[in-house]
Design a protein that fits this description.
three-stranded antiparallel beta sheet, three-stranded mixed beta sheet, alpha+beta, elongated
Length: about 220
Amino acid sequence: MDYKPNLPNCMVQSFWKKNKKKTYMDPKKKETVKEEELVDNTQQVDQETEASAADKEAPAQEEEVLTPEQELAKKLEEANAKIEDQNDKYLRLSAEFDNYRKRTMKEKAELIKNGGEKCISSILPVIDDFERALKTTETATDVAAIREGLELVYTKFMSVMGQNGVEAIDASSEFNTDFHEAITTFAAPSEDLKGKIIDCVQTGYTLNGKVIRHAKVVVGE
């Protein structure tokens, strides 16, 4: 036969209520309780971390306190370092500028010395044509053919000059002191030629629009 303890009803009911609360707690309440415990633990850890950091910073702050002499020495050291840095930059900049000046002077000298290289190179074929023309005149008897050959060489030469920016000044227009130089005057054969160019003694030229030689002309009066 099983033994059943004879306990008062009040004790049985009290035991049953306690165990029922522990065993059948609402899951939502359990989760809330766990979250609250987690928050409490996190706050406690943060407080301990802050306290530890404050303890570490305290000695550092105490060490940064300097006497007036030490502070002045520190500022002097920083100023000397800054001056040294600026001096180094100045020396570097001065050296770079000196190298740039020497390089530009060398380039300028080379440009002045060899500036006409392109123009001379373009004229060389015309010189070759002149040499062949001179050699031909030694045995040629047809003057018209020689003249035609010289005209071709002259046309080629003027074309090369034009490619290098050289152009002849027009002496058939009205007299213009910017381009023409009157070497003499001559009685105009008609009224409409007075003050105008009658003849061109020497052709003038411009280089890239700049007059390098005025045309010498005769003006009617």
